[in-house]
Write a structure and sequence with these properties.
Bound molecules: calcium ion
Shape: globular
Mean pLDDT: 92
Number of helices: 8
Structural class: alpha/beta
Order of helices and strands: EHEHEHEHEHEEEEHHHEE
Radius of gyration: 18 Å
Length: 220
C-alpha cells in the first residue's frame, strides 16, 4: 500500500511518516501544495493524508481538483483544533475522514486501515481469499489457518495482489505499490519476492502471466 503524506509541518510530518512506515506502508512525503499536485499526477496512491493549510497551494484546492477529475482515492484530512469550518469544507469537498491535530498515531493508523478497508469494499478487518487470510493491522498471513511468516516487502506484495484477485498487476505496478521515492529497487526484486511467496504459499496461489504480470486467481 502506498500513501501520500502532504504536510508542511516538519515535526508532524516526521512523526506521521515514521508511524505509518512502521505499519508497513510505503509513504511519499511532500511539503507543499504544488508538489502534492505533481505527486498525485505521477503516481497511483492508495490513500492521501492531507494537511489543509499548505504553502503554494491550499489543501482544499488540491482535494477539489482530485474529485473533479473523478479520482476516488481515500483522503484523510489533518486539521487544526479550532478549524471546524475547515473540516466541514474538507468533508464537503470529498474528504473521507479527518483527524484533529495533535492526534494519536495509533488512532491515525486505525483510521488509515478503516479507510483502506472501506475502499476495498470490505467490512471485515482482514482479507480472506480461498485458503489465504491476510490481516493488514497485525501483518499476519495464514494459509489453511497456519501462520506464514513474511518479510515486509513480501507482505506488501501479497496485500497488493489480494486487493484485486483475478486482475493481473505488472512488475511496474507492483514496484509502485511496495517502494517509495528514493528507495533502491533491484531490477529483479519483484521476481525474487514473488518466487519466495510462491515457495511459501504454493505456486497455485500466485499466477505468473508471462509478459503481463502476476495475479492471485479470482477463484482459487
Ligand atoms: Ca500546515
Amino acid at each position: 500500500m502506498r500513501l501520500l503524506l502532504v504536510e508542511d509541518d516538519k515535526m508532524i510530518g516526521t512523526a506521521v511518516q515514521r508511524g505509518v512506515r512502521a505499519d508497513g506502508y510505503v509513504v511519499d512525503w511532500v511539503k507543499d501544495g504544488l508538489a502534492a499536485g505533481l505527486a498525485l499526477q505521477d503516481h497511483a496512491y492508495d490513500l492521501v493524508l492531507l494537511d489543509l493549510g499548505l504553502p503554494r497551494r491550499d489543501g482544499l484546492d488540491i482535494l477539489r481538483e482530485l474529485r473533479r477529475q473523478g479520482d476516488r482515492v481515500p483522503v484523510l484530512i489533518l486539521t487544526a483544533r479550532d478549524a471546524v469550518a475547515e473540516r466541514i469544507a474538507g468533508l464537503d469537498a470529498g474528504a473521507d475522514d479527518y483527524l484533529v491535530k495533535p492526534f494519536d498515531l495509533d488512532e491515525l493508523a486505525a483510521r488509515v486501515r478503516a479507510l483502506l478497508r472501506r475502499n476495498e469494499g470490505r467490512a471485515l478487518p482482514f482479507i480472506e481469499h480461498g485458503r489465504l487470510r491476510l490481516n493488514p493491522s497485525t501483518h499476519e498471513v495464514f494459509l489453511d489457518g497456519a501462520a506464514v511468516s513474511l518479510p515486509a516487502k513480501e507482505f506488501a506484495l501479497l496485500h497488493a495482489l489480494l486487493t484485486q484477485p483475478g486482475v493481473p498487476m505488472s512488475r511496474a505496478q507492483l514496484e509502485e505499490r511496495i517502494y517509495g521515492w528514493g528507495e533502491e529497487i533491484a531490477s529483479n526484486a519483484v521476481e525474487v519476492y514473488i518466487h519466495s511467496l510462491r515457495h511459501k504459499l504454493g505456486t497455485d496461489q500466485i499466477r505468473n502471466l508471462r509478459g503481463v504480470g502476476y495475479m492471485v486467481p479470482s477463484a482459487p
